[in-house]
Give the backbone structure.
Amino acid sequence: MAEVARSGGTGNAPAHEILLYGWLGAGAADEPHRPQDSNDAIVVRTDDRGPDISRAFRIGTLEVATVTGGRVDIEPLPAAHQWRGVVLGYLVSGRLTVEQGGHVVELGAGDFAFYTGAQRYRITAPGAHEYLVVRIPTAAIALRHSMFADIVATDLSATPSAGVLRAILAELASPRMRPTVAATAHLGDAVVAAAHAVIADARPAGSAQAMSLFTSLVIWLEGHLGETDLSADRVAEAHFLSVRHVRRVFSAHGTTVSALIRQRRLERIRDDLVDPRHARTPVHTIAERWGMPDAAVFSRAFSRQYGTSPRKYRALYLLQGQAGADWAPPTPVVVSAEDAVADATVEEVA
């Protein structure tokens, strides 16, 4: 993979344009031209009918899709509301170029690059290609755009952790990959962890100290998740810091104390739900053990993060592999405006 200089347009542009709406959202593979959904709309300039989504599935909170196509020139539709997380693209075959933020990188088979829907981008391919797209929500990557703005659309192949991330992406791109219910969330964690490693390797010198404090605070939180009064105040008191400084450290990494506590608690509860050692432990007991005693709040938060209720999630795991079992990776639920406001209020308080 090599970074290339930005080039101007050529006189040999693709023949026509296609608009695709919500093309990586739920049901996009079956209904790619949905004019009623203006989210994630992209403009595709192509010589044929445009890209196809040959496979799509979820691993934890991450969306994964394999896209095949020919010669294309793709940009987001300016008027559309774009998904604002981190996108990790892995080229399975062919050649492809990613442009964003003044950077341009040319990918060959086996190469990957980061970009984001929070800023305009451009993706071009001169011919037949297969491309794996992994969309990582902001809450999962816990990084603001400013923390990785220097590495979007850049060559990361020389970073020490690149081989680890490349191996995971290659496995996800394999047609044989059919993640089990028990493994999906863990696979999502593995992708995020490997992505974090590559981003850390690629960061400029001098950012390690800020990362070290954030990591220390997160490690402390991990050891106190079962305490219901866990908060920014508790973190600050335990580390002899001001509450404002603690909030600033978490904000610099694109999250809040309350959001990270909720995410980590849900991850631990999820792990226990599919652990055979806890098969007979009631769901509410597991939730209480990890600091979420309110059944309604817990159930809503779990369903939002994992796409189904905690009881159904456990049932899917228990049924998995049995004769006649019929399951599919869960999809996210719709969050009401009232819930969104409530969550925002909670995060402000913490």
About this structure: The CA atoms of residues 23 and 115 lie 17 Å apart.
